[in-house]
Write a structure and sequence with these properties.
268 residues; alpha/beta; 7-stranded parallel sheet; two-stranded parallel ribbon; 32% helix
């Protein structure tokens, strides 16, 4: 969905692990960036990065946010559901409140979602595949996606990230020293922070809004091979996986190569 309108201002709701890295990259590209945090302690650190900071803590019912935050060319919603059961249940309602607050102010809205909307059905999946989540978080994320599409049918973009790795998320630590780990021959579906940011930047720069993107590295080594190597390279005790392939999926993308022509920088 290409447009001639120049994108200058980007609002990022949730400057966490991905959101902050994304914001920093945007600053280097001379975008004006508004960033939100839920903690007063992080307010000053955002300002030091030349990000205009906003203190925003959404619930499902209230929107205690400065309306100026939503005055932007593009809003990225980067708040994954929390594991807490109450928070998890309220996640779709929270996303609904955010979209209602933003849809008349932000020209484009991008929801950061997850490939957990696909269950492990022992097959390859892409953006055209049916979604059958098999985890609680997958169910609430899919519900949030559906709300988003219903509330903003002409103004939605969804990025479904695979498992995120990178700085402070060293995969070598995930299974280090553990034994008899099941499903060792199952393929992994991961994306490095560098490429997660890269895909989001590509959507902005190419004005490629209005569709769903699966963002996952195109190579899918076996779980035992990937995590054993990662632990070894980190100097940690190598894990031991059972040589079995029970439940799995391979996440592929039709839209990233077709509409973005994005080339992944980090091989998994």
């Amino acid at each position: 969905m290409n447009e001639s309108l120049e994108i200058k201002t980007v609002s990022i709701l949730g400057c966490g692990w991905f959101g902050l890295a994304f914001a920093k990259k945007l600053i280097t590209l001379n975008y004006t960036v508004k960033g939100s945090t839920t903690t007063p302690e992080k307010f000053e650190s955002l300002a030091q990065e030349k990000i205009t900071p906003y203190l925003i803590n959404f619930t499902g019912d209230t929107i205690p946010a400065d309306s100026d935050f939503f005055q932007s060319d593009v809003l990225f919603i980067c708040i994954p559901p929390k594991r807490n059961s109450i928070e998890l249940k309220n996640y779709p309602k929270k996303i609904e409140s955010i979209i209602n607050a933003a849809k008349n102010n932000s020209k484009h809205i991008v929801l950061i979602s997850s490939t957990s909307v696909y269950g492990d059905e022992n097959k390859s999946v892409n953006e055209h595949s049916e979604t059958h989540p098999d985890t609680d978080s997958g169910h609430v994320v899919l519900e949030a996606e559906k709300l988003f599409k219903n509330l903003a049918p002409e103004n939605f973009t969804i990025i479904r990230f695979a498992g995120l790795i990178g700085p402070e998320r060293n995969p070598g630590r995930f299974f280090a020293g553990k034994t008899d780990i099941p499903n060792g021959l199952a393929p992994v579906n991961l994306i490095h922070q560098t490429d997660a940011v890269g895909v989001a930047i590509s959507i902005l720069e190419q004005h490629a809004f209005g569709r769903i993107y699966n963002a996952c590295a195109p190579n899918h080594p076996a779980k035992k091979d990937f995590y054993t190597k990662a632990a070894s390279e980190t100097g940690l005790i190598e894990p031991y996986f059972l040589k079995e392939k029970k439940s799995w999926k391979i996440v592929e993308s039709v839209n990233v190569p077709k509409f973005l022509e994005y080339k992944y920088e980090i091989e998994i």
